[in-house]
Structure formats: C-alpha cells, structure tokens
Task: structure prediction
Amino acid sequence: MNRALAMAFLAFLVSVPIGDLIQQDRFPWGKQLESLWLSGAGEEPDAFSSLFPWLPEGDAFVVFEEALEESSRWSRWVRPPVQRALTRWLGWGNAEVVLLGDHLTHRPSLDHFLGRPWDSDGGESTRKEPRAAAVLQRWSEELRNRGIRLVVVPIPPKVSRICSEEALSSSRGKRFVGDLRSRGVEVLEVAPDFLTRDTHWTPAGMESTAQAIADLLLGNDWIERGPKLSSTTRLQVSGVGDLARLLEKGSASRWFSEERVTIASVQSWSPDPASAVLLLGDSFTNIYSLPEMGWGANAGLAERLSVSLGFDVDCLAVNGNGARASRDALRLQGAERLKSKRVIVFQFAERELSFGDWRR
Result:
C-alpha cells in the first residue's frame, strides 16, 4: 500500500513537466532560463554553481522560479481547486493570506501584530518602531518651525478588531503610540471596522475616522470650520476583496460571493492645493476614491474629511509603501506646497512599522 502511494505521488510529480511539454511542445521555462543564465555570465562561480552551471542564482533565481510557476499550465489548473479544498475544509490560507473565522487577513499585518520580526537576523534590535518614531518626531519639529501641526493616524491591522483587550494593550501599535506621545508628536488612535475579505476598512470605519480627525482639528482650534455644504450621493458598491484575490489569483470571483457596502460619493470634489489641511495617505485613503480599486469613487478619506471640515482639503495619497511614498511625493513638491498649510494629517497602515521604509 505504501509503495503504491509513493509511486502514485512520484507519477504525479513527473506528470507536471511532461504535461507542460505536451501542451506547449517546448520547455516553458527554456527562454527564461537562457536569458537568466546569460545575465549572470562573467560572475565568479561558487562551488554550487560549478556543479550546476545552468541554474540562475540569487535574485535571478527568484525571477526564474516565478516565471516557471506562472508559465505552467498544470499549475494554473491544479492550484485553484487544491487551494479551494484547503481553504474550505481545513481553513488554510497561503503565504499571503490567513483565515480568521469568516475574515481573511493579510499575513504580514498579522506577523506585525504578533511581534514577529521580519528582518534577516530576526533580533529585537531590528524592530522599526523606534526609527519610525524618531523620523516622525524630527519631521513634526521641522513642521512646527513652519507653523504647521503634524497629526499621525496609523491604521491598525484587521486582527486588532478580534483580539483580546490584553493582547491589544501590549501590541506594537500601542507601544508606538505611547512613544510618539512621549516625543511630543500628536497621534490619533482609531479602531475602524474592516471589510470581510479585503485589507481595508469599511465605508463606515473610514467615515468615523474622518470625523475623528475633523473633531480633533476643530476641537483644538487648529483650524476653523468652513462654510461649504457638500452634496453627497449614497451608492451601493460590491467587490470580492484584494485578500480573496491574493488567496488564489484569478479564481476568487468563483469562490466568494461579493461583499456589498454603501458609500457616500461626494459631488464636485477635488484636492485644493491652497487648503489649510493636507492629507498624506496610502491605499486606505484611496480605497473609496479611485474606481480602479473596485469600491466606488469620490467617497474616500479625503472627500469625507472635506465634508466634515466644511472645505476641500489638499491630498497626496499613494498606494503602497505608506511609510515613505506620500512623504516623498510631498518632498518632490517642495516648500511651495506647504505655503498655506496649518495641519498635515499623515495616515499609514500600522504594519509599516515592521515592513516600511523609515529612512528620512
């Protein structure tokens, strides 16, 4: 019996490349392998590469491996039903997605929340919170010298909404908030609700955050409420979610029903470069603003903050690399973009404390 199982397993392994050959009449990885091998020509070979000179090395091997995986028709046929079975019957995710009850969560966000270092040596000293806090303290002081207040708004990971109060009180995010406040940096803590199978918050969670920011700014008399009464339209939108798509590329729409939410689309809104308030953000700011993200348009954090303040805010929001991308965008604009500013709101995903680029 054991021998039969072993033979069947070996036959399955061999069938994959043979199937690719039959389907494509060639080795699907041939051209990629040739180009990657040539790209490494001229480098000093080590012992391993002397034994296997036809294999690419280092980053080239990673690219080769990904190209091999994507070019395999058997992989595209077999992987979706296998992943579906693992997800449905065993509750397993994959390298990027974890199942937590009915919710999907981003594995890097979970790793951050659980305090798992991601840096190569894995030591406690590699954590980025102190570096991030120092960078934000220095930036806050520079802005204060210009008469501008900085308000930091880190968005906690989805797992924070289902964990115990004890776990939440000792989390990295809580320590970071305490560190920032001890350095004299204004920080706003939020606890939004999240979409079931997406990384991002629900419209209600985003709107409550916009209102909390507005209350902070107006309540401290840092700015005055404007006279503008924005017109909004309630719309229903639906989507599968980015985490569902990550769980198995190309098959999520067949696995999961779409989640339906209601957004408040703001009419005739655009960022105002002359506004007293500048919002710097990432995909959390953009999720309901950019139609290409699949959750409607003109209903994001900048639009909702404008409604709550009574005037249009300025906005620079870049998907991904929330620790640095929007700050770099502002830096490229130069001092001209800061001329009329009294408050800068800096929103980023809290997982950036573990994985973000916090160089100055």
User: Anything to note?
Assistant: The mean pLDDT is 79. The longest strand covers residues 232-239. Residues 124-355 form one domain.
